[in-house]
Structure formats: structure tokens, C-alpha cells
């Protein structure tokens, strides 16, 4: 009796270990992407699914996606998935607006899969290279572009704000309108500060026309005053020269008048002419 119980226990342990190994193998066939390792899909060929645990369509898609993961070696591709609830930044980076969303990625070139989601269609999409007929995502919407990187930051920020909103209602007991009022006031204050900074930067690099006109007028006035000062100095020099010339002329006239008066004076001695021997 004890022997049969021991055999039964060993059988159960072996069955559990086998089932765990099967589940691990099934799980490892599909790579899980997060915001820290999503760059791995930029190398090689990938089929990536964006899903959420609460999404009914995603739950229906799970067996099909696991099958595609088991077929990845024969198809020569890699298979991955992204949980948008854990990685909201990636949902913003890839502009995920519906779930599940599937992307085909080939060496950093992105194409959205919009064909039927059954096993045969997915396998045929890879084997027949149907993805080559699909227009790739434009460069400005590419997940690797700067603008989509900024979009991912906004999505992460929205997730943070949502967590704060839930904390204000659950932990502090605030009503919904109270939480919204706090966010509205904070948004107004931050918007005003940001607008003030932007205006200051614009005024620094491109001052308004009125300020430019005032600066130009001051420069013009300063140049005109300097010119007037120079002309006044020139006029003063000319006046000094004229005064000197007038003084010299008056002195010469005085000397000539003195000589003439001396010559006409009766007391002046006349020189006698000498007689010739």
C-alpha cells in the first residue's frame, strides 16, 4: 500500500514538472518587450503584438500568437508581444489606438499588419513575404523618430498622472471633481510659467519692432549729436582763425597809421640835402 502511494506521488511530481516545463517552453517561445528592451526588435525580422490583459480580443488571440511563437524557427522570424498596461510609452511610440495591434518589423522598418488574424493568414504573411506589399510606416511616424519618442514621454506622463489621480481618490478620499480641480489649477500655473519662459526667450532672440525702433533712434540721435559737435568745433576753429586774422589786420593798420602820423608831424626834423663838393 505504501509502495503504491509512493509511486503515485512520484507520478504526480513528474507530471507537475512536465507541465511546468511545457508552460516554460510555451512562454519562452514569445519574447516579452518592455520600454527597456524594445530596441531588440530593430534587428532581424519580428512579429510583435500589442495587447492588454483586460482585452477580450487579445485573450482570443493568445493561442494563435503562441502557435506563431512555436513556429518561429521554421519561419525564420522572431515573435514578441508588448503589454500596453506595463509599457504605456511603447503604445504611444507605436501609436496604438486599438487592441490587439500587430506590427511586422524588418531591420528597423515597420509595417502594420491588417490582414486576418488566424493562424494560416499569419503564417502565409511570413512565408509568402506578403509584408513586402504593405507600405511601411512613414519616417515622421516611425517609432525611432524624435517626435514619436516625445510622444512616448507624453504617454508615460499620462500614466503617472492617472496613478496620482487614483491615489488622491483612494488614499486621501478626494472626490473626482476635487482631483480634477487640482489638476486644472496645476495645469494653469505650469502653462503660465511655460508661456512666460517662451515669451522671454523669443524677446531675447527677436526683440519687438518698437524696441528696435527705439534703439535705432537712440543710435541716430547719438550719431547726429556727434556730427553736430564736430561741426560746432569746426565753426569755433574758423571763428578763432578769423579773429586772429582780424587782429593782425588791425595791428598792421595801427602801425601804418602811426608811421603816417609821424611823417606828417611839424616837429619832425627834415633831413637836409648835402651839397656836392
UniProtKB/TrEMBL annotation:
Q: Which UniProt keywords apply?
A: Disulfide bond, Electron transport, Endoplasmic reticulum, Membrane, Phosphoprotein, Redox-active center, Signal, Transmembrane, Transmembrane helix, Transport
Q: Any idea where the Thioredoxin domain is?
A: 11-131
List the residue ranges of the region (Disordered): 215-277
User: What transmembrane ranges does the database entry give?
Assistant: 177-202
Question: Which residues, if any, are the signal sequence?
Answer: 1-24
Q: How does it sit in the membrane?
A: Single-pass type I membrane protein
Name it.
Similar to TMX1: Thioredoxin-related transmembrane protein 1 (Homo sapiens)
Native species: Cotesia congregata
Amino acid at each position: 500500500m505504501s509502495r503504491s502511494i509512493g509511486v503515485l506521488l512520484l507520478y504526480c511530481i513528474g507530471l507537475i514538472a512536465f507541465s511546468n516545463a511545457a508552460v516554460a517552453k510555451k512562454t519562452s517561445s514569445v519574447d516579452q518587450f518592455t520600454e527597456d528592451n524594445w530596441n531588440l526588435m530593430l534587428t532581424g525580422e519580428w512579429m510583435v503584438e500589442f495587447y492588454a490583459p483586460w482585452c477580450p480580443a487579445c485573450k482570443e488571440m493568445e493561442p494563435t500568437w503562441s502557435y506563431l511563437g512555436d513556429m518561429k524557427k521554421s519561419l525564420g522570424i522572431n515573435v514578441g508581444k508588448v503589454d500596453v498596461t506595463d509599457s504605456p510609452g511603447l503604445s504611444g511610440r507605436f501609436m496604438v489606438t486599438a487592441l490587439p495591434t500587430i506590427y511586422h518589423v524588418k531591420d528597423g522598418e515597420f509595417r502594420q499588419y491588417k490582414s486576418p488574424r488566424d493562424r494560416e493568414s499569419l503564417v502565409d504573411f511570413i512565408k509568402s513575404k506578403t509584408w513586402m506589399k504593405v507600405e511601411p510606416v512613414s519616417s515622421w511616424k516611425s517609432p525611432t523618430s524624435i517626435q514619436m519618442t516625445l510622444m512616448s514621454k507624453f504617454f508615460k506622463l499620462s500614466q503617472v498622472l492617472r496613478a496620482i489621480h487614483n491615489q488622491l481618490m483612494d488614499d486621501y478620499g478626494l472626490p473626482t471633481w476635487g482631483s480634477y480641480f487640482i489638476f486644472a489649477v496645476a495645469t494653469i500655473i505650469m502653462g503660465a510659467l511655460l508661456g512666460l519662459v517662451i515669451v522671454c526667450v523669443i524677446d531675447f532672440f527677436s526683440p519687438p519692432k518698437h524696441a528696435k525702433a527705439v534703439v535705432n533712434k537712440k543710435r541716430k540721435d547719438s550719431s547726429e549729436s556727434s556730427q553736430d559737435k564736430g561741426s560746432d568745433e569746426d565753426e569755433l576753429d574758423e571763428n578763432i582763425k578769423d579773429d586772429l586774422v582780424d587782429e593782425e589786420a588791425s595791428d598792421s593798420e595801427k602801425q601804418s597809421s602811426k608811421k603816417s602820423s609821424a611823417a606828417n608831424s611839424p616837429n619832425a626834423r627834415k633831413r637836409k640835402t648835402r651839397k656836392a663838393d
